[in-house]
Every structure is written in C-alpha cells, then in structure tokens.
C-alpha cells in the first residue's frame, strides 16, 4: 500500500475515530491514529490503525506537517471534551487551525473535520455566559479557518451523538441544523457516532462533498445518495 493511501486521524482514541479506522482500512487505506497517551496504543491498534503518539495541543505546525506529508487525507476528530474553556480553545480551535495550516504546508489537499450541526449559527444564539459557549466559539472558528483555506475540505456536522449502530442512512440538515426550514425535535436531532464514521469514510473514499459542509442526523436516505 502506498503512502498516498494513508489517512491520518487526529484524536485517534475518540469513539468516532476508533469506529472509522476499521472502515477506512476496509476501504483500502492505512490509518495513522494520533494519540496523546501511549497507554491507548493497544486499543488503537486493535481497531486496525497505527498508533502515533503526539500531543497535538503542543505540536507546532511544522511537526504536524512532517507527519501529514504524503498522506491522502487528514481527519480532525479530536476534542477537549468540554468542561475546561482553556483546553477547549487549545484543542478544538488552536490545534485544529494548526492542523489545517500543516495540511496545506504538507501538500495534503483532503481534510475532514468533525464539527456539529448548528456550529454555523450558534455564535449568535448561544448565551456567551453559557458553559457551552467556548465550545461553540472554538468549533465555529475552526470551521471558518478551514473554509478560508485552499484545502478540499469536508465539514461534518452531526447532531447529538449516540452509541446506536449506524443504519448507513442520513437526514440532511441545513446550515442552521434545520430540516425543510424548521427545527426538528430533540429526538430527531441525533446522530449515531458510527454513522459519523460511515460518512467520514464515504467522503474520503469517494472524494465526495468537497469544500462542503454536511450537516446530518440519523435518517432514511442512503449515504451515497445523499452525500455526493
């Protein structure tokens, strides 16, 4: 397998990344999963990926570019997990921006980031005093930085993440996370983590949704039909 068939996943021990690695492998890619904690190596390798120990919070653009060089795609699926505004900013915004710049520097054209369905509008509607606001700010900022880049990006915007198995089908939402102009109820605005892994694999393997944002929930339209 050539290096051009390599996908680098940042946040390699995350639930979505651990599901995406075997799916990407099945699609013919080798996967480098980047983790901060070496204790997670066995779990990452069990998912079929090569574990790369690197703290993306402190790794500079040059270090990331070195790792990305020659890869087919870079996936940003890392997150601070909320709770600490400083870490949220450091990982979800600053590390994401460096990884975008590093992809361009390394000549890796394809970049996929996991955002969330209403990231494009929440800056205007979430209370700045809310504990959720630093996350909104970080995701919005990272997405905007990516849109302003030269990369062939795909921004994935799932709803509330669940542990349900993927049905391989989606309900597409607009930039505000709405469907047909209305906000769906909370039960509808959910997305299986495995479905996110399926959509991620689909866009990389099929060069689909280039320079596009795909907001989606669990639904009834097959991925290949909905995401082109």
Automatic annotation (TrEMBL):
Family matches, as InterPro entries: NAD(P)-bd_dom, NAD(P)-bd_dom_sf
Pfam families linked: NAD_binding_10 (PF13460)
Top-level lineage group: Bacteria
Signal peptide location: none
Domain (NAD(P)-binding) ranges: 11-206
PANTHER family: FLAVIN REDUCTASE-RELATED, UPF0659 PROTEIN YMR090W
Protein name, entry field: SDR family oxidoreductase
């Amino acid at each position: 397998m050539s290096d051009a068939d390599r996908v680098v996943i940042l946040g390699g021990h995350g639930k979505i990344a651990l599901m995406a690695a075997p799916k990407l492998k099945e699609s013919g890619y080798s996967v480098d999963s980047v983790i901060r904690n070496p204790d997670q190596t066995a779990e990452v390798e069990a998912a079929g990926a090569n574990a790369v120990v690197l703290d993306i919070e402190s790794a500079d653009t040059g270090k990331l570019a070195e790792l990305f060089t020659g890869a087919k795609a870079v996936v940003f699926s890392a997150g601070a997990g909320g709770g600490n505004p400083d870490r949220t900013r450091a990982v979800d915004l600053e590390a994401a921006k460096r990884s975008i710049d590093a992809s361009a520097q390394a000549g890796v054209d394809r970049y996929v980031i996991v955002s969330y369905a209403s990231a494009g509008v929440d800056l205007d509607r979430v209370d700045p005093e809310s504990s959720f606001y630093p996350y909104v700010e970080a995701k919005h900022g990272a997405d905007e930085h990516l849109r302003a880049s030269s990369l062939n990006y795909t921004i994935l915007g799932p709803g509330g993440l669940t542990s349900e198995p993927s049905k391989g089908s989606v309900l597409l939402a607009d930039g505000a996370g709405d469907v047909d102009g209305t906000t769906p109820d909370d039960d509808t605005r959910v997305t299986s983590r495995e479905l996110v892994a399926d959509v991620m694999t689909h866009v990389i393997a099929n060069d689909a949704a280039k320079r596009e944002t795909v907001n989606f929930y669990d639904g009834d339209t097959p991925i290949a039909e909905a995401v082109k």
